[in-house]
């Protein structure tokens, strides 16, 4: 699932994301994320206490550690490969371009696993 929104994500958006993950993925889920304040919010803690913690394990990255965050590699791939030398006329065409590029990335397991391997979580 690819989601794009114009406003900054808040704790309600994160809870919605976690709910979607529970629906889309069977079994236990480990989510590695940064230490953003919204990830520590009361709403998220309540969501986990309400039963989600039985299946979701949250692992926080150190304060500032882009080299440990596979998302940095994903964004670099999108910017430097998929969206390189593209010019968008307005926000809607930019959104559409990001959605299409993300869709192509979904098909590139080698790139996604490479971003994880780059962080030394697994070997490629």
What would you say this structure looks like, in words?
There is one protein chain. By secondary structure, the protein is mainly alpha-helical. The protein has two domains: 1-64, no CATH class; 65-124, no CATH class. The chain contains five helices and two strands, in the order H-E-H-E-H-H-H. The protein has helices spanning 11-24, 42-49, 70-82, 91-106, 109-118; strands at residues 29-33, 56-60. Strands 1-2 form a two-stranded parallel sheet. Helix 2 (42-49) links the parallel strand 1 and strand 2. Helix 1 (11-24) packs parallel to helix 2 and helix 3 (70-82) crosses helix 5 (109-118). The longest helix is centred in the last third of the chain and has 16 residues, at 91-106. It is globular and about 45 Å long.
Task: Report the portion of residues in β strands.
Answer: 5-15%
Helical fraction equals: 40-55%
Q: Mean pLDDT, nearest integer? A: 88
What is the end-to-end distance?
Answer: 24 Å
Choose one word for the global shape.
globular
């Amino acid at each position: 699932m690819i989601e794009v929104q114009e406003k900054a994500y808040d704790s309600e958006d994160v809870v919605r994301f976690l709910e979607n993950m529970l629906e889309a993925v069977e079994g236990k889920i480990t989510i590695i994320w940064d230490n953003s304040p919204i990830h520590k919010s009361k709403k998220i803690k309540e969501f986990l206490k309400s039963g989600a913690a039985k299946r979701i394990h949250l692992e926080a990255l150190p304060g500032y550690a882009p080299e440990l965050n596979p998302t940095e590699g994903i964004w670099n791939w999108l910017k430097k490969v998929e969206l390189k030398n593209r010019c968008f006329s307005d926000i809607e065409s930019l959104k559409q371009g990001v959605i299409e590029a993300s869709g192509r990335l979904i098909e590139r397991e080698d790139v996604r696993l490479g971003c994880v391997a780059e962080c030394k979580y697994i070997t490629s």
